[in-house]
Amino acid sequence: MASEHATVLVVAEHRGGKLSAATAEAIAAAQQLAAPWQAAVHAVLLEGAAESGLAAQLARYQLAGVLAARHPALAEYTPEAYTQALQEIVSRRQPRAVLFAHSYQTRDFAPRLATRMARALFGDLTALRVEDGRLTVSRPMFQGRLAADLVVPGEAPAFLSVQIGAFRADRAALAAAPAPIAAEMVAPAAPAAAPEAPFQEAKQAVDLTQAAIIVSAGRGIKEAKNLDLIRALADALGGEVAASRPICDSGWLPMDRQVGSSGQTVAPKLYLAVGISGAIQHLVGMKSSRAIVAINKDREAPIFEIADYGVVGDLFEVVPALIEAVKAAKAGG
Amino acid sequence: MRILVCVKQVPAKDAPIKVAGDGAWIREDVAYETNEPDAYALEEALRQREAHGGEVVALTVGPARAAQVLREALAKGADRAIHVAGDDAHRLDSYAAAEAIARAIAGEKFDLIFTGLQSEDYGYGQTGVVLAELLGIAHATIIMQVQPAAGGVRVKRELENGYFQYLNLPLPAVLTIQSGINKLRYATLMGIKQAKSKPLATVALADLGVSPSLNRQSVAKLYVPVKTKKTELLEGPAKEVAAQLAARLKNDLRVI
Ligand SMILES: Cc1cc2nc3c(=O)[nH]c(=O)nc-3n(C[C@H](O)[C@H](O)[C@H](O)COP(=O)(O)OP(=O)(O)OC[C@H]3O[C@@H](n4cnc5c(N)ncnc54)[C@H](O)[C@@H]3O)c2cc1C
Question: Which terminus has fewer CB within 10 Å in chain A: N or C?
Answer without folding.
Answer: C
